[in-house]
Amino acid sequence: MAATAASPAGATRPQRTRAARLHRHGDPVVVEDVALAEPGPGEVLVTLRRAGVNPIDRYVAAGTIAADGPLPRTIGLEAVGDVDGSPVLVHGHGLGMTRDGVYAGHVLAPRNSLVPVPAGVSLEQAASASIAGLTAYGVVVDLADITADDRVLVLGASGGVGLPIISLAAGRGARVWGQTGNPAKADAIRELGAVDALIADADGLADAAAQVRPTVVVDALGGDFTPAALSLLGQHGRYVVFGVSAGAEVTIDLRSVYRRSIRLLGYSGFGVTPEETRKRLELVLAALADG
Prior knowledge:
- This protein is of the alpha/beta class and about 290 residues long.
- It has nine helices and 16 strands.
- The protein has a six-stranded parallel beta sheet. Strands 9-5-7-8-10 form a five-stranded antiparallel beta sheet.
């Protein structure tokens, strides 16, 4: 049990906590006891309950993102915990990158990085809502502006972001199809609101999705999937890219893009202001609460 110190209100405040610490980029993190400083101006101590695990956490540990962050430091970019007995989502403001993150029992977090968790949202849902939820919201609402008039093809649909994209797009009334290379994940795609799951690799995508006639393609894959999916879009289609797990370099026929007035759109969470992030997180949590 961590040692505690009395607070001015008579409660106790932990002096130490267990945390997953990054000492050198590329090395495994080390779980160890670390001291907890007194909260500074605008900071609050959060007792953490659940944390999300994302590819970006691996990139941070490898040093491909936030390589100039302090070492050693606690990693982890999103979590849910308690403040004064109330559940809060914790994300942003440099957590895990330029300051200690959330893979720990406690974290000193900027108060502005906390978003109240509404009733009906579980700790597990809230802990994984930030990065995947913000991406889904940015893709579906901000960039593609998907509506009930759209037919949407989601590539990499069974992934941690693909599934919430399906749910959010279907919730806005669109008809959605999800591509996966794994037949075992087809049911999950359908359960989140897709009309159907398309089991196809890049070579078979055009045939598998020929009847979809998408107005929007959402691409987490890149590689050979991109030219195949682009060929399916009609006039004024929107093509949104947010990942390149199948390859970052692609070859496309630009004449087919401009002749069909296709819009190529890219999503990244970098560059979004803290105020925008907080507003979107509130909307993401509200969507989860609404089912």
